[in-house]
């Protein structure tokens, strides 16, 4: 598991400053949830951490190492998005193993990792199916499985449950909480769902307009919001 340190992250798109100097330290094994209104820069920040987007200024450290010049594949990160593009022609097992093949992981090791991840995510009976034969929730679990098999030190989840119906959202949220306990990995998770944030997070980061409004344990944000925006979000009667 890896620590994460963001220092003064600024990102501009043309004339628009989307991130205005974000500082954050995440401890190894911590579950940190980013929340904030649509357009406040959550996905941009995740993409910068993953190396899919370059910050205008500021630094990203993963596991105590500056990764600003490190390509995404070498950052030890796995990302799970809202839109989980699975390969339709491959089975569940094929989808989960593909990146491992590209990484050069030997076949026996690949199979062992897929079996373990499938067990964790209750995908074992589905390994031979193709994505078209799965429900939305099952597909999202495959997308999570595909991330797990790479044994990343840091997971990034960007609204992974938004496409699921309410019951599946709860079930998948519980799976993710279980994974965090089992894998002992560091997890950064974006949501605009207060219940997800309150139940999953060790600490919540409230973002608005490209700045961090407050960082703290769910109970502390609830009891002692720093401003009305945080109070409104967490729903505490200030
Ligand atoms: P969130 O995930 O919090 O909804 P985003 O990080 O996706 O927000 O977007 C933050 C802002 O940056 C939005 O105003 C969005 O339109 C803008 N933005 C994001 N990506 C780009 C891009 N590639 N080019 C221009 N503007 C972008
Ligand atoms: Mg987003």
TrEMBL record:
Q: Where is the ABC transporter domain?
A: 4-234
Q: How does it sit in the membrane?
A: Peripheral membrane protein
Q: Where in the cell is it found?
A: Cell inner membrane
Give start-end of the signal peptide: none
One Gene Ontology cellular component: maltose transport complex
The Swiss-Prot or TrEMBL record annotates one GO molecular function as: ABC-type maltose transporter activity
Q: What is its EC number?
A: 3.6.3.-
Looking at the record's lineage, which domain of life comes first?
Answer: Bacteria
Q: What class of enzyme is it?
A: hydrolase
Coiled-coil features, chain-numbered ranges? none
Query: Is Hydrolase among the key words of this record?
Result: yes
Which UniProt key words apply to this protein? ATP-binding, Hydrolase, Nucleotide-binding, Sugar transport, Transport
Q: Which family does it belong to?
A: Belongs to the ABC transporter superfamily.
User: Can you say what this protein is called?
Assistant: Multiple sugar transport system ATP-binding protein
Question: What stretch of the complete protein does the chain hold?
Answer: 1 to 238 of 334
């Amino acid at each position: 598991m890896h620590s994460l340190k963001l220092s003064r992250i600024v990102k501009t798109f043309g004339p628009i400053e989307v991130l205005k100097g974000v500082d954050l330290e995440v401890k190894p094994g911590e579950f940190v949830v980013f929340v904030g209104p649509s357009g406040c820069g959550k996905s941009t920040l995740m993409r910068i951490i993953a190396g899919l987007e370059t910050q205008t200024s500021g630094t990203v450290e993963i596991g105590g190492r500056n990764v600003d010049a490190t390509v995404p594949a070498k950052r030890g990160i796995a990302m799970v998005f809202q839109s989980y593009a699975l390969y339709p022609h491959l089975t569940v097992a094929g989808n989960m193993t593909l990146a491992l093949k590209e990484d050069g992981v030997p076949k026996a090791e690949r199979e062992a990792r897929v079996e373990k991840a499938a067990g964790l995510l209750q995908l074992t009976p589905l390994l031979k199916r193709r994505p078209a034969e799965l429900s939305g929730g099952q597909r999202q679990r495959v997308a999570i499985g595909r991330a797990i098999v790479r044994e990343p030190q840091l997971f990034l989840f960007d609204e992974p449950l938004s496409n699921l119906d309410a019951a599946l959202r709860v079930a998948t949220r519980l799976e993710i909480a279980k994974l965090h306990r089992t894998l002992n990995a560091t997890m950064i998770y974006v949501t605009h769902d207060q219940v997800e944030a309150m139940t999953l997070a060790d600490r919540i980061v409230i973002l608005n307009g490209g700045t961090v409004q407050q960082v703290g344990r769910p109970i502390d944000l609830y009891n002692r919001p720093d401003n009305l925006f945080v109070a409104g979000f967490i729903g505490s009667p200030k």
